[in-house]
């Protein structure tokens, strides 16, 4: 399945014939023969996708560590978590339809992803059908005390937000149009803040008084911010009353980091064709794509720590794709490709010379 991800295979036939061409290079994986198409199709349908889910999260813990119970004061990127979802269209109703394409219903799968800004890889992923509400997965998030969570307004759910506030977790989002709130206090906005785009800063009571017996009202803060670059005005909502208004606006801007992650995955791996026509096969391929993305990220980060001219993610993914069956010290090659090639060539020439003399 990793071979499929790296080589952008669009069908079982393409995957199996690709493995057969590279059969002699796969012995180090313990593969003495390549599987049949029917065997792989059956495996994708019957083997639980939960295994691949557990494998991904185990790899994350191995390479990026376990999240602590609390996060002390430190760099913002170490405390900042971003959550969002991305939808992948399926032109069959494997998952519940999420829209229409040329008048026909289409299926879709949604990945709800949480990342820590410092790591820039998913630390939590939940895969659902495309029609699933974003709010539904909020109770599943388990964040350390002292975290800062950034989310789009589609994730606004007052009960989890109130629980996070009790646990010492800061959340930053945007205000929904239909939200009910009452102003408690107008906070002063300095001329300097106003010049940077902060128009208004208020302490509010968030929630609907008519349903307060079900969803308790909570104290929050509402910021009105004007962005010159986009010529738009934004209403930012947070439970933090200590950070400056500009810091809150800057934190929300970091939400675009997860959009760049989604683009990275979709541009470097193939998610338009799936090897199976059932939910389990689709989930397995999605988890394997996330595993491939994590492994490339780990390799890139290790090489860039030792190299002055940094590699991009796309270049590392492309190089791995070309040399997937090549016996090579990948990190050393990425650090200094010229020396690695010269050394490899000299060893081959020495070996050929020895054979000739023999």
What does this 3D model show about the protein?
- The protein has 358 residues and is of the alpha+beta class.
- Helices cover 41% and strands 22% of the residues.
- It is built from 13 helices and ten strands.
- The chain has helices at residues 2-7, 12-21, 37-46, 49-64, 76-79, 158-166, 191-195, 245-253, 256-268, 279-306, 313-322, 330-335, 337-357, and strands at 80-90, 97-101, 104-116, 122-129, 148-151, 170-174, 181-186, 198-206, 218-227, 232-238.
- Strands 1, 2, 3, 4, 5, 6, 7, 8, 9 and 10 form a ten-stranded mixed beta sheet that branches.
- A hairpin with a 4-residue loop joins strand 9 and strand 10 (232-238).
- Mean pLDDT is 86; it is low at 97-105 and 351-358.
Task: Summarize, please.
This protein has helices spanning about 1-5, 10-20, 35-45, 50-65, 75-80, 160-165, 190-195, 245-255, 255-270, 280-305, 315-320, 330-335, 335-355, and strands at about 80-90, 95-100, 105-115, 120-130, 150, 170-175, 180-185, 200-205, 220-225, 230-240. It has about 350 residues and is α+β, with helices and mostly antiparallel strands. The radius of gyration is 25 Å and the shape is elongated.
């Amino acid at each position: 399945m990793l071979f499929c991800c790296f080589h952008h295979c669009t069908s079982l036939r393409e995957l199996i014939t690709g493995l057969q061409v590279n059969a002699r290079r796969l012995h180090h994986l313990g593969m003495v023969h390549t599987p049949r198409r029917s065997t792989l199709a059956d495996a994708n349908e019957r083997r639980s996708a939960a295994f691949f889910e557990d494998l991904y999260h185990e790899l994350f813990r191995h390479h990026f560590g376990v999240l602590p119970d609390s996060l002390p004061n430190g760099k913002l990127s170490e405390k900042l978590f971003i959550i969002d979802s991305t939808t992948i269209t399926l032109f069959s109703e494997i998952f519940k339809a999420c829209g229409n394409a040329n008048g026909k219903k289409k299926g879709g799968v949604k990945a709800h992803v949480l990342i820590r800004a410092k790591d820039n890889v998913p630390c939590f992923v939940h895969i659902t059908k495309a029609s699933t509400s974003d709010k539904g997965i909020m109770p599943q998030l388990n964040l350390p005390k002292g975290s800062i969570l950034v989310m789009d307004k589609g994730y606004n759910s007052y009960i989890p937000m109130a629980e996070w506030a009790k646990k010492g977790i800061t959340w930053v989002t945007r205000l929904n149009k239909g939200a009910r709130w009452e102003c408690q206090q107008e906070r002063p906005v300095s001329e300097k803040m106003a010049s940077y785009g902060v128009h208004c800063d208020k302490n509010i009571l968030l929630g609907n008084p008519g349903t307060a017996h079900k969803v308790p009202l909570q104290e929050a803060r509402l910021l009105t911010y004007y962005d010159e670059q986009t010529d738009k005005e934004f209403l930012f909502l947070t439970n933090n009353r200590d950070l400056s208004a500009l810091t809150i606006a800057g934190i929300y801007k970091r939400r675009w980091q997860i959009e760049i992650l989604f683009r990275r995955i979709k541009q470097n791996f193939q998610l338009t064709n799936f090897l199976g026509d059932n939910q389990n096969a689709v989930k397995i391929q999605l988890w394997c794509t996330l595993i491939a993305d994590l492994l490339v990220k780990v390799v890139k980060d290790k090489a860039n720590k030792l190299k002055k001219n940094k590699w991009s993610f796309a270049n590392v993914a492309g190089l791995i794709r070309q040399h997937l069956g090549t016996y090579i010290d990948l990190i050393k090659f990425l650090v200094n490709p010229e020396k690695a090639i010269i050394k490899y060539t000299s060893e081959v020439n020495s070996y050929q010379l020895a054979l000739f003399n023999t």
